[in-house]
Design a protein that fits this description.
Blueprint lengths: L1 H8 L4 E6 L12 E4 L6 H5 L7 E5 L8 H7 L3 E3 L6 H5 L3 H5 L4 E3 L17 H9 L3 E7 L1 H4 L12 E7 L11 H25 L2
Parallel strand pairs: 1-7, 2-5, 2-6, 3-4, 3-5
Antiparallel strand pairs: 6-7
């Protein structure tokens, strides 16, 4: 997203370190990226990844002047959180992944207030199993330190953000979408813990 990239470049004192970009297959382009969600900064940070992708976002973002209009015109997928129709809306990503366009999903469904992973929603994993779509977990650490959840107010001018791309997850290796979901949560929590400990050691 151009607006997200512009936002990050406008803050040159935030250092972003990407790890594991080589784990993304250049052949299997129609993947579902799943990322943890810590603050409003997450989308601008993920937009710095070297992939053109669609986003699944809450409907409220689509109502923001200019930004929301651009998201809608660009074909990003709107989700009405908490409604029974949310899972049906998620199926809007199928046409993209089948057309080799990656999609970014926040499986927690909302921002974590304490930085810990919230339980994952089912939608992305149901679709991955039904359509045999590869999942690619991405874990970020540090955005909630620079911009607190629920606010656009910047807490620190200087700061570091870590982004780790993990190994792809292939639905055929599992017996159910629940197994896929639980495994994704496990490996992402382990990486989040690792990044947390690494930051503490280097403090």
């Amino acid at each position: 997203m151009f607006t997200g990239q512009t936002f990050m470049f406008a803050n040159p004192f935030w250092r972003i370190k990407f790890r594991g970009l080589e784990k993304v297959s250049k052949k299997d382009k129609g993947v579902i990226f799943i990322g943890n969600h810590q603050s409003f900064m997450d989308m601008p940070v993920f937009s710095r990844l070297p992939f053109k992708m669609k986003w699944v976002s809450k409907k409220e973002l689509f109502k923001i002047p200019v930004v929301g209009w651009l998201m809608k015109m660009s074909g990003h997928v709107s989700i009405d959180r908490g409604k029974k129709t949310a899972i049906q809306s998620m199926y809007g990503i199928v046409k993209y992944v089948k057309g080799n366009v990656p999609v970014m999903v926040f499986p927690e469904g909302t921002r974590s207030r304490d930085g810990l992973l919230k339980p994952f929603k089912n939608g992305a994993f149901i679709i991955a199993e039904e359509h045999d779509v590869t999942l690619q977990p991405i874990v970020l650490y540090g955005t909630n330190k620079l911009m607190r959840p629920g606010t656009w107010k910047i807490s620190h001018i200087f700061g570091k953000i870590d982004v780790s791309v993990l190994d792809p997850i292939y639905p055929k290796d599992f017996n159910s979408f629940e197994e896929i979901r639980d495994y994704a949560q496990k490996v992402m929590q382990e990486e989040l813990d690792r990044l947390t400990n690494l930051r503490i050691q280097n403090a």
